[in-house]
Amino acid sequence: MVHAYLCRFQICEAYEDNTSIGTIRQPEKPLGNPPMTSLRIILMIVVMTSCVIPIRSQARLMTVLGYQELFDKSDLVVIAVPKTKTADTKEVAFLPDISLHDKDGKQSRIKSIGVETAFAVSAVLKGDKTRKTFTLHHYREAHIPAVELSGPLLVSFDPEAPSQRGSYLLFIVHEPDGRFAPTGGQTDPGFESVGHLSRKATK
Questions:
Q1: What is the domain partition of the chain in residue ranges?
Q2: Per-residue b/e over 153-164, b at no fewer than 16 CB within 10 Å?
């Protein structure tokens, strides 16, 4: 996916070397062929737009855990419902095991903001059977680009959003401060550690 990102910028740079934005003129055309000219103009606009949109590419080795391994490594495995919208904390950190590469090949870390979401437990599959609530500690990107290739698989929750209502299956581990974090790390919790279930499972 990084290769695709770089190729796209090479196309953009090649185009910018031959055509200056703001000085594009409609190409000369034989009379009686307006559809072809219109098509050329549309294609030129599409290419120009793709060059203007900022694109970021991430490079990393992604750790994939099977469900049994997730279950074994977790302190708590639950079906739960988010009761609050994900909220920012004052925590600022960098996502682990992932780096940002810009179009010039410069590498940098991805800044993130610590966030929290309160959950109500519907069923406990592993762990304390008496637990009724918990707080999930996770992250969001501090700056989200218009287009992102191979980015982190983060999660967020909003009980008022129709697409996010319902129950979630969570594989989580204890943190020293009493909160819980996704099993397998904070970079890709949306891959398998946190999954959205059918809305029917909410009740």
A1: 2-53, 63-202
A2: ebbbbeeeeeeb
Among 187, 199, 193, CA closest to 159 = 199
Please tell us whether the domain made up of 63-202 is placed in CATH 2.40.50: yes
Contact 80/121 with Cβ under 8 angstroms? yes
Tell me which residue of 81, 180, 177, 69 sits closest to 123, measured CA to CA: 81
Q: Is the pLDDT of residue 175 over 60?
A: yes
Which residue do the tokens 């770089």 mark? 6
Dihedral (CA of 77, 83, 85, 90) sign: negative
Overall average pLDDT of the 100-106 stretch: 77
The answer to whether 63 and 157 have CB atoms below 8 angstroms apart is no
From the CB of residue 1, how many other CB atoms can be counted at a distance below 10 Å? Answer: 11
Phi, psi (rounded to 5 degrees) for 90: -85, 0
Give the position of tokens 């109500």.
120
Q: Is 51 left (phi over 0), alpha (psi -120 to 50) or beta?
A: alpha
Give pLDDT, residue 194: 97
In degrees rounded to 5, what are phi and psi of residue 10? -65, -40
Residue with tokens 């989200």, as numbered in its chain: 144
DSSP secondary-structure letter at 27? P
Which of these, 115, 113, 114, 118, lies nearest to 84 by C-alpha position? 118
Confirm if 9 and 103 have CB atoms less than 8 A apart.
Answer: yes
